[in-house]
Amino acid sequence: MATDLGELLVPYMPTIRVPRTGDRVFKSECAFSYDSPESEGGLYVCMNTFLGFGREHVERHYHKTGQSVYMHLKRHVKEVRRVTRLFSNLELNRDFNGVDYEYEDEAKLVIFPDHFEIPLPNIEELPALVSEIVTIACDAVLNASSPYKKQEADTWEEEIQVSKHARSLRQQENGVRIPPSGWKCAKCEMRENLWLNLTDGSVLCGKWFFDGSGGNGHALEHYKETNFPLAVKLDTITPDGADIYSFDEEEAVLDPHISEHLLHFGIDMLQMQRVYNDVQPCVSDWEVIQESSLKLKPVYGSGYTGIKNLANSCYLSTTMQVLFSIPEFQRAYVGNLQRIFDYSPLDPTQDFSTQMWVFLSWNVIIMLNLSCFFILYNCNQQRGISPKMFKALVSKGHPEFSSDRQQDAHEFFLHLINLVERNSSGSENPGDVFRFLVEERVQCCQTQKVRYTQRVDYLMQLPVPLEAASNREELIAYESKRKEAEENMRPPPEPVRARIPFTACLQAFTEPENVPDFWSSALQAKSAGVKTSRFASFPEYMVMQIKKFTFGVDWVPKKLDVSVDVPDFLDLNRLRATGLQTGEAELPDLTPPIVIPEDTRAPEIDESSVMQLAEMGFPLEACRKAVYYTGNMGAEMAFNWIINNNLERALDWIFTHPDCEDESEAMSDTADTEPNNNSFSNANAHSDSSLSPDQDLSSPRVRDGPGRYELFAFISHMGSSTMSGHYVCHIKKEGRWLIYNDHKVCLSERPPKDLGYMYFYRRLSSC
């Protein structure tokens, strides 16, 4: 019999591989579902690709690839004190009815398509040559570490070392003091991904990220010009440290003297620590938002799947729960299983659309199966799914989301929408339901002339005007008592939460704002300018963020403790853009001269080279920039400059905009004459978001309609900072509110709508 089995294996021996360094072995979950060795059908690991498949999917993989040999892993759960074996597809423990359980693992090789089985203990009986090779391969698979270990080792916490420049860093006595907010790159209009050079205090933008966010690389350019080696990311500074990068060592580093180096520029980390220690935790927030004082009823079934928390991953879970409750996302990713399987790449773990499908569709299917278990056996435990594969993919290459630190749900939402768009070429883009146009009206205060422009956005940000609090007297009294208690070293009084009318937030959103460094094309010089923003279109789904997070004057990141009476029904029609009005004179359509700090003269630019590049499909201003920075050395040199600065982004722009010409200023950091409006998300500050005022709004990418909405979900944050705390979400389904708190899903008794952070509205069908 052993000889016969050996003969069966011989034709497939060339396909049996031993995992090498760098190979990822998926022996704990299916690439197309959340099946595992504990599932009823177990898990099949391909002995060539090391991908895992549930019983339903292994046949498809065999027919698609021709790979025939799989290791079948099955974990049985056995009851210790009773004869009956219970529920082999679930991990049970002694807390369930007071019964103890133990695991029994089983492994065997299976040869498709005839399902010949070879238990691993029997491999030694095979012919020597076959036995030796197969045993080595099987042992390597069984002993392989988690496929996510490598990514975990790539996080800064694991590899970070003290910089060789930390002790000897010399800082310039130039009087630079960094404010706690209002930062902008010294060489462009970037207001995110900003880095503070620890030698001279320059604030400059970082590099592009793979997802299209990031900056224009001016921090690196500054290092090449000055050799000033260390920089700190501005929005990461906390009492515990900050993200520091060494341009010379080309890696993230530690700086044991970071508090001294930051204090040189007016950032007092020790003061931040004292303030953090004095902050009273608002316990009521945790209780009210999680409804922990109420006995909530768990729910099970389709659409009610919980998601396990993978080390501060609640920002991801809550965002995905809301997105997957939207029909457009369901249609885009739950479609035909066979089509998803047929068109997925050889490694589906690295395919965004496949993993979105897995996350959305299989959590529903698994929960349907588990619901039968809960009903039949009256088990009050909720397990949820564990989306390790999905998190590893969507966070790949991102310095924040790839870490185990808590993150901002608002930033992750924009990051995911970016990924959805990048992976929707040639198919429906469900992210378009959030897409809308913003009309920006800028007026030169001296000439009164105006300019109207439009850009794409996905999220509306509402400021919080604390001065409009309806309980101002109560707040003043509390502050007086707090100071008195502090002076007399007594316990502080019970905190008082500011109650802000939603109408006040909306009014603050519509107020004109000053435009710093405004360049007036009418005067051809800098002048005072004001800007107002309105909706040129309204999306199917309006996402609204309450801007609760800010920095104090002492550089302490803080969260505004406010209650906002957010309405169930929202009418934004009065904020509809009107375009150029009768009697208004337009600013001339001129571009400000490109200059460098040391030279105020307008540069000479070879326009013929610019046009050659523009004909290739690159944005006009990006072409001008490339020609300028290559010293008018010709179109070829300028082309290489664009490619070398960001190959992926350049190619991505060309392939996703084959018919567009000069509509984007995505790669230019010199053409913007005014900064982005803080009242919107700026999700497309570096994408093809600039549109002419007369552009056709009937494009399928813009689903314009009435601006009346109904609230259907909101995400809430508990804690003092986006870098800590916890997120939950509430979603309204079938006329009832539910709370999604990691793996637990329950009916909500008192949805805390006034304490939310992000709100999701859907357009009313009849207006």
UniProtKB/TrEMBL annotation:
Q: Provide one Gene Ontology cellular component.
A: nucleus
- Domain annotation UBA: ranges: 604-645
The record's annotation in CDD domains points to: Peptidase_C19B (cd02658)
A single Gene Ontology biological process assigned to it is: proteolysis
Which residues are catalytic? 314, 726
Give me the reactions it catalyses: Thiol-dependent hydrolysis of ester, thioester, amide, peptide and isopeptide bonds formed by the C-terminal Gly of ubiquitin (a 76-residue protein attached to proteins as an intracellular targeting signal)
**Which residue intervals make up region (Disordered)?**
662-702
GO terms (molecular function) for this protein are:
cysteine-type deubiquitinase activity; zinc ion binding
Q: Domain USP spans what residues?
A: 305-764
EC number(s) for this protein?
3.4.19.12
Sites binding Zn(2+) sit at 185, 188, 205, 218
DNA damage found in the keyword field: no
- Keyword line: Hydrolase, Metal-binding, Protease, Repeat, Thiol protease, Ubl conjugation pathway, Zinc, Zinc-finger
Domain UBP-type, first and last residues per copy: 161-269
Reading the lineage from the top rank, the first entry is Eukaryota
What segments bear the compositional bias annotation Low complexity?
676-700
Query: Which InterPro entries does this entry report, sorted A to Z?
Result: Papain-like_cys_pep_sf (IPR038765), Peptidase_C19 (IPR050164), Peptidase_C19_UCH (IPR001394), UBA (IPR015940), Ubiquitinyl_hydrolase (IPR016652), UBP13_Znf-UBP_var (IPR041432), USP (IPR028889), USP_CS (IPR018200)
Question: What family is this protein classified in?
Answer: Belongs to the peptidase C19 family.
Which protein, by its recorded name, is this? Answer: ubiquitinyl hydrolase 1
